[in-house]
Amino acid sequence: MSAARKLACVVVLAVCAVSLAANWLAPAGYARQFREAPSAPPSHQHLLGTDEVGRDRFARVLYGTRISLLLAPAAALVSTVLAALVGGLAGYLGGIWLRLARGFTDLFLSLPWLFLLITVRALLPLNVSPLVSVLITFLILGLLGWAASARVLSTSADALRNSDFVLQARASGLHGPRLFLVHVLPNLKPVLYAQFWISIPVFILSEANLGILGLGVAEPLPSWGSLLRELEGLISFREEPWRLVPLLLLIVVMTSFQMLLSNEEVTA
Amino acid sequence: MQLLKILRWKIAGLLARRLAALAALVLLGGLLSATLVRLAPGFDADERELDPGLNAESVRALRQSRAGEHNILSFYASYLRGAIHGDLGTSHALGLPVQSLLRERWPVTVRVVGIGLLLAWLLASTLAFTACLCRRPAYEILGTTVSGAFLCIPAAVLALLSVILNAPGYLAIALIVFPKIYRYSRNLLAKAYTLPHITAARARGLGEVRILAWHVLPIAGPQMIALAGITVSIALGASIPVEAISGLPGIGQLAWQAALSRDLPLLVNLTVLVTLVTLLANSGADVMIYMLSSRSDGRIRPSAGPSSAIVNAL
């Protein structure tokens, strides 16, 4: 592992650890309002100041990071499992199944990702409880984000189907689900891991996009998307630079994820 | 002559197959969108029914006007019949014919996306080619850092920043698309430079510009053409947050409004339009690659189309 990847790993782990310790590190809950100090600048009491309704921004950043960083991998897991089921099985079965799966993935890929995501999210109820909004947001990411991974997996599984060891296993009398589970799926693991890791930063950015447009996690629950939405009221960077902290944190974490992914994984 | 004839037939066959696949995907895309809207919670609700000034007959008439949308297949069939005769329906939310809405908004998006794409390609290719030609780590680091930074910023944040800084919307689109182009084209060029014949050309004393033009671009070129097709789709997707946040009255903003108001006729038309543009861009790029490759080596390469392979890498 190169020094840059080690550093990226340390940064991601540190941010995760700090966000998990939000209950102890945050000076107040993410929804607690300090009504005597709305839009306050940074101070000893409020390290990053307060937002328009007097909520401690540092606490919201910590809790928001926790939500975005924990649920993006969960969404990535959903999409990878779906991709393995659709792409992996279609590639393994071949023939009409492969053509059908490729047609289906082509249909999904022919729609721009942001267009599909924003349209589907806007069609679902927006007036829901914060917890339900979190579930809807990340479930949509997981359920819609499988197509590109499925395409890659179908190609890999198709190549494995015609490989010597699978042919030999077939000749030995191994067929059906057992052949898929014992010989094909374990060999798809590297591609599955790569697709999982690639999906995480994509989903973090997608959630942020939804949040800024008001389609993400509902108030008062914070996420990186809803925290970045605060930038809407920013008049100039010089006046309140501390409002850019969520954006800087997002850039640092995303850069770390980019560094963690090797070139081989990205082009896998 | 015979070879040329065969090639023409093969390209015509390829075009016909592509067009058939494209038509099927566009129709399925429209049906998918219509199904999603129909299944969306609250589809049946019409705010106008809450108007206390309306009597029972008016409310019944309102419901009757949307009765055709309840069965999605019959709605889609009647939509297709209308579309063939040039009638794309009427927007529920805006109360205007969809055709006039698209005619009004399309030029804005074409301008924003077109200039944005042009700027993105200009910036990305300048950085990528400079890094290749100069072969200095400083250029490499500059390109990677700048593209990496923009790759980590959500499209909607770039749109917001463009509003705060009074920058035009196309600049936001350019900055959203640029890092993807830079990274992919840089990787392609770097891969091409590692080939043995490039090393041999260098050893023979060929200049860097000549190596790039004669030996590297013919290898990386087809993939870059495919990338150009894909970037149209990325830019179109990016136009939604950019136009919605910047207040630009384009197709992106219209899609945003249509989704929020569950406007079935408008959303189906927009999905068909976006799918059509995306597929045309990708197919155009693929056909261009086939034509170039068939000219250069006299045969058509059997491939699934490079565009689809790039989607994942981006």
Explained architecture:
The complex is a heterodimer of chains A (268) and B (314). Chain A is mainly α. Chain A contains twelve helices and no strands. In chain A, helix 1 (3-20) packs across helix 3 and helix 5 packs antiparallel against helix 6. Chain A is elongated. The longest helix of chain B is centred in the last third of the chain and has 39 residues, at 208-246. The model of chain B is unreliable at 298-306 (pLDDT under 50). The chains are: A mainly alpha (268), B mainly alpha (314). At the A-B interface, helix 4, helix 5, helix 7, helix 9 and helix 11 of A face helix 1, helix 5, helix 6, helix 9 and helix 10 of B.
List the helices and strands and how they pair.
The complex is a heterodimer of chains A (268) and B (314).
Chain A: H1 3-20, H2 22-25, H3 57-93, H4 95-109, H5 113-123, H6 130-144, H7 147-161, H8 164-171, H9 176-212, H10 224-228, H11 245-260, H12 263-266
Helix pairs in contact in A: 1-3, 1-11, 3-4, 3-6, 3-7, 3-9, 4-7, 5-6, 6-9, 7-9
Chain B: H1 2-39, H2 56-65, H3 72-84, H4 98-134, H5 137-151, H6 155-164, H7 169-193, H8 196-203, H9 208-246, H10 251-260, H11 264-297, H12 306-313
Helix pairs in contact in B: 1-11, 4-5, 4-7, 4-9, 5-7, 6-7, 6-9, 7-9, 8-9, 9-10, 9-11, 9-12, 10-11
Can you describe this structure in just a few lines?
Chain A contains twelve helices and no strands. Chain A is mainly alpha-helical and 268 residues long. Chain B contains twelve helices and no strands.
Largest interface: A-B, 45 and 50 residues
Please, what is the oligomeric state?
heterodimer
Estimated share of beta-strand residues of chain B: under 5%
Computed Rg of chain B: 24 Å
Keywords for this structure?
heterodimer; A: 268 residues; mainly alpha; 12 helices; 69% helix; B: 314 residues; 0% strand; flat
